[in-house]
Write a structure and sequence with these properties.
Blueprint: H1 2-6, E1 21-22, E2 28-29, H2 43-58, H3 61-83, E3 89-90, E4 93-94, H4 95-126, H5 130-133, H6 139-166, H7 178-202, H8 206-222, H9 235-242, H10 245-258, H11 267-294
Antiparallel strand pairs: 1-2, 3-4
Helix pairs in contact: 2-6, 3-4, 3-6, 4-6, 4-7, 4-8, 4-10, 6-7, 7-10, 7-11, 10-11
InterPro entries: ABC-2_transport_permease, ABC2_TM, ABC2_TM_bact-type, ABC_2_transport
Family: Belongs to the ABC-2 integral membrane protein family.
Region (Disordered): 1-26
């Protein structure tokens, strides 16, 4: 302890690793190559990456936050006028109230995908990918920073959409089960963030990203029971809908507001859906981590 007090430069940092060592000759030197300086979570680096990504989309928040809210509100207006006339009710509530929760979480998921799918792809196209790969961040920290920023954008978009819909005539956003709103909303945002990050790794140009958005994400979102209950479909199409993970996100999120869903109103059905989405996200996160760790399509 006395030696450390006399030589504070050789004392360990807050993670227990000595950044500067002293050799027998009394000269201070850095650790040898290959000896890690960080043996825990690089909290400063992770926070810096997260804030960089958040500030990136906040600089153009009219496009990234408020425009999606207006677009989603237009969906509500159009479908309410087209399908909600004559006091139509679905699951015991007015049609506009039925549609609103699905539109909120759909907007959250689509924007989470858009945010995460740009980061690495933009770096590859602009030649700035080295700025993400060179800092002392592990693959898990890189993934956490990008996914965390995408989920933040999803929450902001969801809040903006909910705020806009709260003033729409005939829409009630009373929350019946707050746990379902929080859990299914987060699971949907994380799932699409991980899918977006994988897309960003795979894609070589913006056309590749647009192809996944238009031919995978949009159809899965629109055909997941956002505007209807799947009980109205033929049995074959009901089975297809139940194989779509977006269906469980949207129906579970709607259950949080209405207390009703077409998953099933029993606690067991909702808990199984919640756990299933959590397990799916764990699998996606592990796969994404392994791809990042391999350096495929990033370090070639």
């Amino acid at each position: 302890m006395a030696d450390q007090a006399r030589n504070p430069a050789s004392s360990p940092d807050d993670r227990g690793t000595s950044i500067v060592e002293e050799n027998p000759g009394g000269l201070r030197r850095f650790p040898p190559r290959g000896v890690p300086v960080f043996d825990g979570i690089n909290r400063i680096g992770l926070w810096s990456l997260y804030m960089k990504e958040v500030r990136r989309f906040l600089k153009v928040q009219t496009q990234t936050v408020w425009a999606p809210a207006v677009t989603t509100l237009l969906f509500l207006v159009i479908f309410s006028v087209a399908l909600g006339r004559a006091g139509r009710e679905v699951l015991g509530v007015p049609f506009a109230t039925f549609v609103a929760p699905g539109l909120i979480v759909m907007g959250m998921m689509q924007n989470a995908f858009a945010n995460a799918s740009f980061t690495l792809l933009g770096g590859k196209i602009q030649g700035t990918i080295i700025d993400l790969l060179m800092p002392p961040l592990s693959e898990g920290e890189l993934m956490a920073g990008i996914v965390g920023a995408a989920v933040t954008r999803a929450i902001m978009v969801g809040g903006a959409v909910a705020l806009a819909m709260a003033f729409y005539p005939g829409v009630s956003l009373t929350v019946e089960h707050i746990w379902a709103v929080v859990w299914f909303g987060l699971m949907g945002a994380i799932m699409l963030s991980l899918m977006g990050l994988l897309t960003s790794i795979w894609a070589e140009k913006f056309d590749h990203n647009a192809a996944i958005t238009n031919f995978v994400v949009a159809p899965l979102a629109l055909l997941s029971g956002t505007f209807y209950v799947i009980d109205n479909l033929a049995p074959a199409f009901q089975a297809i809908s139940r194989a779509n993970p977006f269906f469980y996100v949207i129906s579970g999120f709607r259950y949080g507001f209405l207390g009703e869903s077409d998953i099933g109103n029993t606690d067991a059905a909702l808990v199984q859906s919640a756990l299933g989405l959590g397990l799916l996200n764990l699998v996606l996160a592990y796969f994404c981590y392994r791809v990042l760790r391999s350096g495929w399509n990033l370090k070639d």
